[in-house]
Structure formats: structure tokens, C-alpha cells
């Protein structure tokens, strides 16, 4: 037995105070128990956390899917308004976080939530989670909507519209690519705009002009590039001496001629948020003109001196005498000296009476140019400047040039004084042989045009496409000349597709080569065949057409597709429609042609790229004679629609936009506040302080869409598709069968004429609903789905090649998608979006048709950043690619 401090504890023996023999098994047991509890808690917590995260993600997906489907429901309703019946197929995910989900269309109480109250909605719910989303939709009373699943990833949306006109049923396959965001829907809503709370104004560079010293009767080109940091530049407006001279959506440069004297030029740009920026510069235009007659004279019997000399002439086009004091000469680098020869001879001489002999001479001695790469000034003696009378022609001779080089490439500048101010006339002869080069498609040919500053003696070019090429020479071109410019043109008959023409070499008749080559251009010949859409009948055979025009009226043409609202597209009750295009006031729907009073002018700044009428507010208006079709008192319903762009801020006077006296009218209260009123019981109802109205003057470059509606009970006003409210005072329209209509002014109140651009005026004999008014206001987005065409089979192993012709300005787009119908079902290609850089003709290849097919059709979506503009689609042709 071991001796020590021993303590007996039950059945165990402990040695002194050391209890490790007891604590080890107890601690182990406790550790196992605690670890087990912790793991159970951790697993439970992690499981709950994971479930929460899944629900958060599911809610984001549900919100995204619901909002996109709600947008698509609105689109199919819009299609049904055109055709009576429409079906849209859209792709969405087949599951949400691995779980099935349902989408149903509901009405009435099922659509009410704490967030909103609605009569119709979509309900998206996840099967295995307590996650759902109710999304309100707006469905007119005469439309029936059905939402069903065609397959797990495709929804079928159908709208039947009993109040729409007849037409082809629209069946449109569509594809939506879903993006999931955390805490919000990151997809854009096609039926609304998200406005930056702090929009940025456009930035514009300083105005540049060429030539740097403008001369009377010589074109001056002004350039001012601009950009918008958060959007698109939609308008340039050029003013000279405070008068507007031109404006347009893609007008970053402007060319004109100006009289002698001091001038200012201002460019104003506007972006798609209505913000503007300005730049101004001042300059002088010389009144001493160069007669474009610089030539090299070889000397001998032809020239003033025995060597090479330069001869030219100037004309004083001012009404006063000028005094020429200095001549600047900058010849080619190869010219070493200017020297007549003998000491007593003269390097500069002037012919003052245009008789071929020289009258005034100036001696400068030997002028060394070897260390003067920027040329030299020759100052006439201060006591004897050259005096040039008004209208006087003066010949100039400078000789002689020593060292070689082309005298025609010399830069000259003549400084003179007029009315105490110095000015100059600069001559910069072009040393570029080729001044312009273009390749275009015209009448099925590729047309190549070359402009040259001198007659060509030879040229080398090549035309090629994807499979072959051919050489071109000067003999393939026709030569014409005008004003010292030679033009060469060749019309080349080629197959369909995109062709490139490259000019690789050219020489003038003296053997001097062009130094700015090669130059190239492309043109696309659309071709024809079964899969071609480029004529009136092609576009008219469409499956659906929403928000676009392909008809022959106003500025529109039937063989092209552009944004707009054609007659009858919104409602068949349209009585009269005045597009106001090209200065015409003809009614393109009825027989109510207008009569112009005063002198309203035509402006190119109308709606959707069309023209409009500009009224000055001082006697300009259009009269429409009385007609029974314009009398709305029978059914006591009317809708009037137009686009208005105010020139300037109004005063206190009421201005008339549209008025049928003692019946119905649109007006601007205090010159700017839009309102609509009905005449009954000797009073205009709607014309008082608390009536629905809105200020429609924001800038001189903004159009507003204004609509007035009376449905027999309420007077309603709309601006840009948004209701301003209603006034329910009158219950009928007074009979005014003997009264005509005034547009832009009142027939009875001459002081109420309007200073505004007015475009696209329509009148209906029914009350349009809010959805129809909204569609009239939307002219920045439209689409057309062509008819189905059957032709040769295109293999699934090939791309689909699309030849197109389109006009697309900055910010505008055209998106093309090809659909195919194989033996069963339908498939679609990837989409391609054409931008301004693609404007003209071209070829794109689309992938995604993964089955052999011999039936195809095309969907084209047109978009514009501004109601004033529209891209134009002239044609598309499908061919089998590589």
C-alpha cells in the first residue's frame, strides 16, 4: 500500500486534493452532451437561415416575373385594339428556386391588397413556399384576357376585344430574358419611364468653322459636337445673328454662305430629358473674294516672268474701297526661294484694270523659304498700300517659284483694311485629289461616285462581296465636270447582298497621285425571293402592326415602315384627320379639307419625323367649313386630339387650338394652360378656374399630346396620355350645325390665334377611353410582324442572313427577330438591334434557328428617344447564310 494523504470517497479512493481521476470522465460526458445540443441548434438555425434566403430570392423572382407578365398583358391588349384578337407567347423560367409556380388572372376582390386596390391583376404564387405577388393590370371593359401555360417555360396570353375593328389576328412569339435583382425589379417597364431625379444637361464643344477665314459667297461649315452624359441628344438648333436658320435631330454641323461683315452663330442642343445647352461664337466674313482661278504659269510668252509663277484674281464685293497691306505666301516645302531674277524686277504685281497687263509692282528681293516651314509675310510699303475700289477685279502675279513643287498647292492670304478694321481673304487650294467618295444602293445597282479637284488620268478600284471580287478602272466610270470639280460615277449591276468598293489608287492627267487612299464604302442590294418584305403589299400582309405606319398619306410612304398612328388604328370612329404634312391641310379620312388663312409655315419638326404647321399667333389659322359629320350634338360624344409645340411663353390671353364655335373647343388659358370645354346653356363648361388644365409650355422644342373627351356626362382632358381629371357639369353638347372649325385660331375671335407648331389633328364622334388616349400619345415605340412566307429550306446548320435598308438617326433603333416554322411548333432567332451606325443598307447574320425550316417571318421593333423622330425600315430580305 502506498502511503500518503488518502481519502475514501464512496467506492473510490482519491489521493490528496487531486480530483483528475474523477473529472476526466465527467468532462468528457458533458462535452458530448453540449456538443450535441450545439449542433442541433446550429443545424436548426442554419436551416432557418437558408429557408429565409430562399424565400427572399423567391420573392425577387416572383416580383420580376409578375411585372414582366403584366407588361406583356398590356402589350397583348394593345395588339387586340388593332386586330380584335391577339395572342402572345412569352418565355419565363419554368421554376422558382427549384419549385413550381402558378400564374393566374384574377378580378375584383382577389386583386385588393394592402398596397393597392385594382379590378384586375395577375397573381404569381410558389407551390412549396408561402410566397406570392399580386400585380395590378389595366383591362378595358370590352376586353377579355386569358393567361395560361403552353408548356412549363412558355405562357400564352390572349386578349379578345369586342370593341376593336376587324383585322388579322395577331399571334406573336416573344422571349423575355429575366434578370434578378436584390430588393427590386431590375427589368425596365415598357409602359413607363424611370426618370433620374438629378438629370444631367448635355455638354457641347466650342463651335468650329471652316474655312478659318470665311469669304463672301464661299460656303462656311460650322460644327459643334455634343453629348449627353445620361441620355441622347435629340435636337440641334442653329441660329445666325439671333435668327433660327435650321434644326434637326442629327444636325451637328451646318453649312451656309454669308454676306461680308461681323456675324454670330449659336447652336442650341436639347437632350431627351428636355435639358439644353448653348454655344456661341463670333467671326468676320471677308468682302474681298477669291475667284477660284489660281493657276501655275510656266513663264515665257505666257507668264510675267521666265520661270514658274502663280496667277489668281480677287474682287472687292464691298460697297467701299479697301486697302491691301500684306500678302502671306506658304508654298510646298520643295520651294526654296521666291525671286523674280534681276534686282530691279518685281516679285509681286497687280493688274488693276483686268486687261491682262500689270499696273502696280512691288520688289522684295530674294525671299528665302528654306527655314520657313510656315511660309512668310510680304508687307507692301506702308505709304503705298494697294487701293481696290468697290466691285473692282484685281489680277495678282507672284513669281518666281524656285526649287520645284506644285504651285497650285500654295496657301495665300491677303490682309486688307476696311472701315478701320483689318480683315483677310485666305486661299487654301486643296492638295487632295479626291475630295469626296461614296458608295450607295440605287435601283438595284451599286452606285460609286468620286469627286476630284482635278481631272483624273487613271484610277484603280475593286468591288467585292463575301464570295468574289472584280477590278474597276477609269473606263468603268462616266465623267462630268462643273465649277472646277470633276465627278466620276459608275452604276454596277450586282447580285443581292452587301458589296464593298475600295478605291486603291488614282492619278490626275499630269501623273500626280492621290495621297489620301485607299477609301472604301459598302452598299447592300436587298434582292428578292420568297422571303422579301419591301413593298406596300408586303407590309400590308402583316400579322400584326402596332404603333407604326406603312401607308401613302402625308409624309408617309406605303413601302416603308415608320412610327405613328395610322387612321383607324385606335378606333373606327375617326371622322377627320389632318396630318398637316408638307403644308397640306387636307382631311385624309373624311371630306373636311381645311382652308389656310394667314401664312403658317411648314416646319420639318413635326411628330415621328413628319412635318407640321407653324402658326405665328398673328392671323395664322386653318378653317374647316361646317359639315354635318363635325356636328357632335346628336350623340353628345366627341374626342379631339392633336400635338402642340409652343414657340414662346404665353401671356394672359386665351389662345385657341381647336374650336367649333358654341359646341366644343381646345384652348390655352393664359396662353399656356391646356383645357377642353363643351358649350351648353350659353356657357363653356370646363372653362373656369378649377377645371382640369395643365401648363404645356416647358421649352420651345417640346411637343405635348393634348386630348379632350366628352362622353355625355364628363368633360375630360389628357396631356401626354395622362388624365388631368374630369368636370361633370354639362350633360350634352349644344347644336352648332352652321359653324365651322378653327385650328390654330378662333373663327370669331382674331385675338385668340395661337403661336405654336400644330401637328396630327384628329376628331372622333365617340368618347375614347383612357387606354385609347394613351396609345395615341405613344409614338416612340411600335412594331410590325410580317406575314409568313414559304420558300426554299434554310438549314439548321446555317445562319439566317438578313439584308436590310433603313434610316436610323442617333438614339433610334430597329430590332429584328426572325421566326421559323419547322414541321411542328415555331422557333426564333437571336435578335439584332440596328443603331445609327448601321443606318443605310447592310447585312446581319442571325443565329438561333435550330431546325430546318421553309416558312419564315420577321418581327421589327422601332424605337425613338423623342416623339419628333422615327427610324424608317424600307425593306428586309432573308437568305441562307454560312
List keywords for this structure.
882 residues; PKD_dom_sf; Jelly Rolls; mainly beta; DUF7266; 6 domains; Immunoglobulin-like; disordered N terminus; eight-stranded antiparallel sheet
Write the layout of secondary structure elements.
Elements: E1 6-9, E2 12-15, H1 20-83, E3 85-91, E4 101-107, E5 120-126, E6 132-136, E7 143-151, E8 154-161, E9 170-173, E10 203-204, E11 208-210, E12 220-223, E13 226-227, E14 233-240, E15 243-248, E16 253-256, E17 261-271, E18 276-285, E19 288-290, E20 295-297, E21 308-316, E22 322-330, E23 337-338, E24 348-351, E25 360-362, E26 367-368, E27 376-379, E28 386-388, E29 393-402, E30 411-418, E31 421-427, E32 434-442, E33 445-452, E34 456-464, E35 469-473, E36 478-482, E37 485-493, E38 497-508, E39 519-525, E40 532-533, H2 536-540, E41 544-546, E42 548-549, E43 561-563, E44 574-578, E45 595-597, E46 601-603, E47 612-616, E48 621-624, E49 638-646, E50 655-660, E51 664-669, E52 673-680, E53 683-685, E54 694-695, E55 704-710, E56 715-719, E57 722-727, E58 741-743, E59 755-764, H3 770-777, E60 781-785, E61 789-794, E62 800-807, E63 813-820, E64 827-828, E65 832-834, E66 840-846, E67 853-863, E68 872-880
Parallel strand pairs: 3-9
Antiparallel strand pairs: 1-2, 3-8, 4-5, 5-6, 7-8, 10-13, 11-12, 12-16, 14-15, 14-17, 17-18, 19-21, 20-21, 21-29, 22-27, 22-28, 22-30, 23-26, 23-29, 24-25, 24-29, 30-31, 32-33, 33-37, 34-35, 34-38, 36-37, 38-39, 40-68, 41-60, 42-43, 43-68, 44-59, 45-48, 46-47, 47-59, 48-58, 49-55, 49-59, 50-51, ...
